[in-house]
Amino acid sequence: xxxxxxxxxxxxxxxxxxxxxxxxxxxxxxxxxxxxxxxxxxxxxxxxxxxxxxxxxxxxxxxxxxxxxxxxxxxxxxxxxxxxxxxxxxxxxxxxxxxxxxxxxxxxxxxxxxxxxxxxxxxxxxxxxxxxxxxxxxxxxxxxxxxxxxxxxxxxxxxx
Length: 160
What we know:
The structure is a single chain. By secondary structure, the protein is an alpha+beta fold. The chain has a single domain, classed as Electron Transport, Fmn-binding Protein, Chain A (Pnp Oxidase, Chain A). The protein is 19% helix and 38% strand. The chain is built from three helices and nine strands; from the N terminus they run βαββββαββαββ. Strands 1, 2, 3, 4, 5, 6, 7, 8 and 9 form a nine-stranded mixed beta sheet that branches. A hairpin with a 3-residue loop joins β4 and β5. The relative contact order is 0.23.
C-alpha cells in the first residue's frame, strides 16, 4: 500500500504572518475535557500572547473549564473570525493543542502578567483581583493553520 503524501505544508513566511494576526485577536474557543465524565466541553475565553509568559487566559473558578484544566491539562484552542461573506470554512483559523498550567497567586511573574493583561483588557480591572480568578498558561504542543481552501500548514510551538 502506498503512503499518501501529507497535504499539510510546512509553514512559510505568509503562513507565519497569518498566525501572528490570528494570535492577536484577543479571544479564542477553548476545548477541554470534563474531569468527572470525560465528555468534551468548549468555552469562549479571553486570550493573549504575553511577551514574557507566553499564551494566557484569565479564568474564573466558577467556569466549568477552571477545574477541567486543573485536573486534565490537555486542551485545544481555535482562533479565527468568520467574515461577513462566503463560506465560514474558507476563512483562516488556527488550531493549537496545548497544556494548561496555573500561574500561582504568589508567582513573582504574576504582577507583570497582570499589568500587561490590563493594558490589553482594561475592563478586566473589575474582576482580575477577585480570589477565584487565576491566570492559566497555555503551552503549545502542536498547531495547524488552515488558511483557507488548500492552504493548510504545520505550525511548530516555536512559531507561536
